[in-house]
Amino acid sequence: MVEFDPWSPEFVADPYPAYAELRDRGRVHWFEASGQFLVPRYADVAALLRDRRLGRTYLHRFTHEEFGRTPPPPEHEPFHVLNGNGLLDLEAPDHTRIRRLVSKAFTPRTVERLKPVVERLAAELVDGLVADGGGDLLARVAEPLPVAVIAEMLGVPPADRHLLRPWSAAICGMFELNPDDETARRAVTASVEFSAYLKELIAARRAEPGDDLISALIAAHDEDERLSEQEMVSTCVLLLNAGHEATVNTTVNGWWTLFRHPEQLAALRRGDVALSTAVEELLRFDTPLQMFERWVLDDIEIGDVTVPRGSEVALLFGSAHRDPERFPDAERLDLGRADNPHIAFGAGIHYCLGAPLARLELTASFGELLRRAPGMRPAAEPEWQPGYVIRGLKELLVTV
Predict the structure, then answer these.
(1) What is the rounded average pLDDT for all residues in the chain?
(2) Under CATH, which number does the domain 9-63+73-399 receive?
């Protein structure tokens, strides 16, 4: 048996054989090391994402003690206040209200207006990479593009943008399984600093509104309902974290996948497959978010297993995307795959609000690299980051 071991570098580098064994062995598995029920099959993952008996939080219905859980240490409070007021970790009615208000500011028109900015930034970044004959694709293109776009949206001045990625990386460390004390300390520090920065920015926009998302969030209202300052801060942090982690890792994971499937890359370069279709397949084939966790608010049945209230389920997106019951020839990269209902952006009420922006950024960066660096190839075998939940490469060195 190939062991499910999310702390093992070998597993992180290639979790897919272990996923296949999990799917073969059953619909749900207790994993003692993290205290979670693992759910590996597509049909179950897709259904549970939409099941209101599960939640991203339980605090709208229970105290920690009522739910059989230990409250987080008081020193972690800045992280939990920041994270707990964001859309991703809220349930109705707060989630419904905040998503409605945020949607008034983060509209399809907002994303469409950003298209020329995204395309210009992607072209500039790729031109720089080509002029230097190559470099680290992550540091030179994949990372700066979405960070710059989110900063542009929020109205973060260019001189401050270097602060965003380190804050985000520190906060996202808490989403890994069983984070240690040092990870928690960094996340709390980043939460305090990022929150203070955004509160100053919000105050400035209240005094002098601009054509940016923070100004739009301040203005968004529904009858007498408005976003509180904390809800605005948490929304902005979530937009940065969710708005670039997936895009960065899909870009580098995707190119590493293409380099290992030269016939598919050649077809893409020839224009035999649509770039938009290819991006969807790259999101499925090596998805950046491998696991999405939910709390069980009421007893549920998965097959012949009762998962009791108070449990946590780990929905294995990476496994679901390789499930042959839903994706024929699931282990094969098929850039022209037409029937591709992947769940890289989630499903149900927590479906990613920024999915259209992520697709715009991915299409722009892949398109520019295909056009301007048609001979791009890897310069070294990359290493994987130690994190499993958000899975990506440390760097991807290329020559052009």
Answers:
(1) 95
(2) 1.10.630.10
C-alpha to C-alpha distance for 35 and 184, rounded to whole angstroms: 19
Residue type for 155, please?
Answer: G
Tokens of 113: 């207006």
Residues whose CB falls within 8 Å of the CB of residue 269, separated by 6 or more in sequence, listed in order: 370, 374
Average pLDDT over residues 130-148: 96
Centroid of chain to Cα 391: 10
How far apart (Å, rounded) are the C-alpha atoms in residues 323 and 80?
A: 34
For residue 366, which of 265, 296, 225, 292 has the smallest C-alpha distance?
A: 265
Q: In whole angstroms, what is the distance from residue 202 CA to residue 129 CA? A: 35
Between the alpha carbon of residue 8 and those of residues 14, 331, 386, the distances in Å are: 10, 22, 8
Summarised one tens digit per residue, pLDDT across range 261-271 is 999 999 999 99
Q: Edge-to-edge strands of the sheet including 291-296?
A: 29-31, 36-39, 312-316, 291-296, 54-55
Percentage of the chain beyond pLDDT 90 is: 89
The CA distance from 252 to 384, in Å, is 11
What pLDDT score does 1 carry? Answer: 59
Question: Domain spans of the chain?
Answer: 9-63+73-399
User: Token pair 């739910």 is at which residue?
Assistant: 67
Rounded CA gap, 66 and 310, in Å?
9
Query: To 5 degrees, how large is the angle CA 260–CA 345–CA 299?
Result: 120
Helix axes 77-84, 181-207, angle to 10 degrees: 50
Q: Is the pTM of this model over 0.85?
A: yes
- Give dist(CA 119, CA 345) in Å, integer: 22
d(CA 218, CA 227): 7
pLDDT tens, residue by residue, 292-351: 999 999 999 999 999 999 999 999 999 999 999 999 999 999 999 999 999 999 999 999
Higher pLDDT, 111 or 376: 376
**Opening angle at CA 211, ends 143 and 160, nearest 5:** 40
Tokens coding 5? 């071991």
3-state SS assignment for residue 50: coil
Q: Are 389 and 176 in contact (CB under 8 A)?
A: yes
Amino acid 208: pLDDT? 95
